[in-house]
Amino acid sequence: MRGIVVGVLIATCGMLAGLCSARAGAFTMPEGEIKLFAVAFAQEGDQYFDRKGRPQPRDHFLKRELQLFGEYGWTDALTLFAAASLQDISVRGEARSRRTGLGRVELGVRRRLYANDGWIVSAQASGLISGARSSDDLAAIGETDDQADVRALVARSFEAFGGHGFVDLQAGYRARFGDPADEARFDATLGWRRAGSRWQWLAQSFNTFGLSRWDGRYPLRQRIHKLQTGALYDLTAALSLYAAAFTTPIGRDALDERGLVLGLACRF
Asked: How many Å apart are CA 231 and CA 22, to the nearest integer?
């Protein structure tokens, strides 16, 4: 049971990191412009995909997180970004545990390499510093390792069905400096807005592939596939609201998870 809970915790952390990257995508900020996000996540699960991908019952897992994410256009082609979070994680049932405190802090840079005829190609690198420094508490397992992330990003803007859309694709490598194994990341976002509308609709997929088994006590080799759909509403030219729901249709050594995301974005 303890090994199952460990897999659940690390699966959740990976998904949250993916959400931050997908909000920005391959696009860079105009020089001197700042964009800030405040995002609240609430997710839970009481089933777990085992090593063969079969759902199994497990203790109830609940995670709530408040994240602040910011981007700054150093130049039109170079964007700096940073993120920090506060989190509350609890496991209730046969195994009982709780962790409350600072989550990971991320610092990174995105460089636009090519832009022409609706296409954008970028490269991104970031480092993530853990806020949890003790794995004695079960809810902190999977939260204590520092990480480095590099990825290639490709976006394509298009006109369709009387509106404006885009597709953003990301392929990345996540190095984890601890027991968890390194990971390959593949994320995709489809967005569309009717001409003149304040609403933008988004569909997203976040996919994590463990490249080997974990070292240490828990020999997990995870595969996590999450689907998310939501909408962005422009209150003003500078202020937007975001809401989404997500689920985990398939996985391995991972939580069968569902949850909600609420966010506020400000550009100035």
From this structure: 14
